[in-house]
């Protein structure tokens, strides 16, 4: 049996300066969901897609804030970036893809700050959007930085500061998508935290991945992993699927691109621009 290896990581701003460290840290992953990525530069996209086995999709935030990206193996088929409401852009991205004829719905979010009006409005919009997703036959993967918890077990202080209304809206989304918290599925009472504040007085498990209930029995591994360039831990999920040969995810030149005139011109212009910047 093969597995899908998924990572979710809040990188704490600017994918353009961190993407090589991200790929180096998680090079075995088939899917990498990133949050707080800012604005993805075209040169970063070109480098990733020319030198690795990933394609990258983004919903940009501002220069140094918000933003979500997904790196997905080129072995996935029929990848579609779905249109989402304008109010969700910069905080939400939705990809649809196929593996072995099975359709997957991949959702990656970066929620606004906890207990704020923007967070309430964000989850209200997402609750409406969830109604559009086919949860009966497709596999739903819902990950990211949720900036909230729904249980006191996920707080170091044993307190949940999230308001009741936001929790109710969030639980409605989970119900509509028919998904489960993958870490809690395998670790019912374990206390682990994905984010800790600077003085270590507060810690919560706000970074999670949810999965369609009917496939949770295929979960092989759930693990939180420190990432040196963020105050958030990454979350690793591995799911058993059928028999599929994945390509490598790390530094693989797609030589066919060198035969494309537009692509080579784009690379040539990028290096000229980069060289001028270095000489300033």
From TrEMBL:
Its cofactor is Mg(2+). Signal peptide: none annotated. It catalyses: Exonucleolytic cleavage in the 3'- to 5'-direction to yield nucleoside 5'-phosphates. GO terms for biological process: base-excision repair. It is an enzyme of class 3 (hydrolase). Its EC number is 3.1.11.2. It comes from the Eukaryota. InterPro entries: AP_endonuc_1 (IPR004808), Endo/exonu/phosph_ase_sf (IPR036691), Endo/exonuclease/phosphatase (IPR005135). Keywords: Hydrolase, Magnesium, Metal-binding. Residues 20-232 form the Endonuclease/exonuclease/phosphatase domain. GO terms for cellular component: nucleus. The keyword Transcription does not apply. One of its GO terms (molecular function) is metal ion binding. PANTHER family: AP ENDONUCLEASE, DNA-(APURINIC OR APYRIMIDINIC SITE) ENDONUCLEASE 2. Belongs to the DNA repair enzymes AP/ExoA family. This is exodeoxyribonuclease III. It comes from Mytilus coruscus (Sea mussel).
